[in-house]
Amino acid sequence: MRKTTIEDWLTDLASELPAPGGGAAAGMNAATGAALVSMVCNLTIGKPKFAEHEAVMREALAEAERLRAEALRLAEDDAEAFSGVMAAYKLPKATAEEKAARTAAIQSGLAEAAEVPLAVAKVSAQVIRLSGKILDGSNPNVLSDVAVAASSAKSALESAALNVDINLGSIKDAEVRERLASALNESLQAKVQAEAIMQAVAKRIRA
Amino acid sequence: MRKTTIEDWLTDLASELPAPGGGAAAGMNAATGAALVSMVCNLTIGKPKFAEHEAVMREALAEAERLRAEALRLAEDDAEAFSGVMAAYKLPKATAEEKAARTAAIQSGLAEAAEVPLAVAKVSAQVIRLSGKILDGSNPNVLSDVAVAASSAKSALESAALNVDINLGSIKDAEVRERLASALNESLQAKVQAEAIMQAVAKRIRA
Question: Checking phi first, is residue A171 left (phi over 0); if not, alpha (psi -120 to 50) or beta?
Fold first, then answer.
């Protein structure tokens, strides 16, 4: 994916191919948000006017770079996430033993497949929190980009959450389901902060 | 932009270069949403099971392809949108006449520059409405992608709206301001529909 041109990636996304799909799009939106946080940091760091925020901005930049790399990697992983489940569905089911082994393989495949959108949700929540961290210290000329970062990450978060939910519906083990749902819930808390960032920026722009 | 690789585009976005920035990211998010609508249509069209929705899906596919091309073009235009304003700021202002000519040039540049994010907002709203149109007839296997499309387009819409608002703040002609604000408002109506699509899909997934 990373070596594909923007035009070709969009064409592949639009096609009837199984990947890339909504999962990769969510990863891409998270990466876009992280990249915008980096941009805001890069346009703030080193300017004497914003010297008092220098340390926060430098730390945020390092974190944003890490999150962008992770989001892009997860967007690429998404295509493979379901291959384990698909392979498990193809296992033999002639005997009772085979049936049990197949069901177990499908179930562990589903739990594994849920890990990718769960990780996208987590990265997206981190991008939102990072946007909140740089909101006050950012160069005012690029304040709107802080909001665009939070908005793009919020879209990634809610999209990834849907993909986790789809998997949860097929997982039978209540404990596994509970663990995944609780991890997702923690990330989903960041949605409220994304809204607050959007509103704070809009307010300052209209002021 | 369209011939840049995903990785390089994200790196450029993250850099201190003036473009691409939040405006291009908004255009990209709108294009991603449109591409996902195309994908859902492509995975629904031609399947006997969904024959009753065939006509709606074919029409939606054609519209989604058009919107994707337009969103990508607007993402590319965004970089140039401000060049007119920047050139106007560099005009001479030694005499009263020069000052008046410069102010007029800045003002018309700002009004022109607002047209790109306004068009991104309009395209994003159209992607949201199109997601709503295909919601009932889409292949249930890719129902979540309809929601991801709406979510990505909603992020594009609210991001573009911020960029229009920034320009509105500098435009002095009340009539121009009123015309831009009213056009933006019409597009912003689609935000509520995007939320409704997300909720409808989440409800069906959890059912």
Answer: beta
Q: Which two tokens stand for residue A123?
A: 């990265």
Q: Kind and range of the H or E element at B110?
A: helix B96-134
DSSP 8-state secondary structure symbol assigned to residue A140:
G
CB contact A42 to B (< 8 Å):
yes
Beta pairing partners, B5: A5
Contact A163, A23 (CB under 8 A): yes
Phi/psi of residue B5, each to 5°?
Answer: -75, 155
Q: Considering only CA atoms, which of A125, A123, A135 is closest in space to residue A65?
A: A123
Write out residues 81-140 of A within 8 Å (CB-CB) of B.
none
Is residue A44 within 8 Å of residue A64, measured between CB atoms?
A: no
H or E stretch including A162? helix A143-168
Q: What are A180-203's pLDDT values in tens digits?
A: 999 999 999 999 999 999 999 999
Say how many CB pairs under 8 Å bridge A and B.
178
Is B47 in CB contact (< 8 Å) with chain A? no
What is the b/e burial string over A171-196, where b = at least 16 CB atoms within 10 angstroms of the residue's CB?
beeeebbeebbebbeebbebbebbee
Q: How large is the ipTM?
A: 0.94
Q: In chain B, which residue's Cα lies nearest the Cα of A148?
A: B159
- Rounded to 10 degrees, what is the CA torsion of B37, B43, B44, B49? -160
Distance CA B9, CA A200 (A): 28
Reduced to 3 states (helix: H, G, I; strand: E, B; else coil), residue A5 is strand
Phi, psi of A173, rounded to the nearest 5 degrees: -70, 115
Q: Which chain A residues are Cβ-neighbours of B201 within 8 angstroms?
A: 162
pLDDT above 80 for B82? no
What value, to the nearest 5°, has the Cα angle with vertex A57 and ends A51 and A59? 130
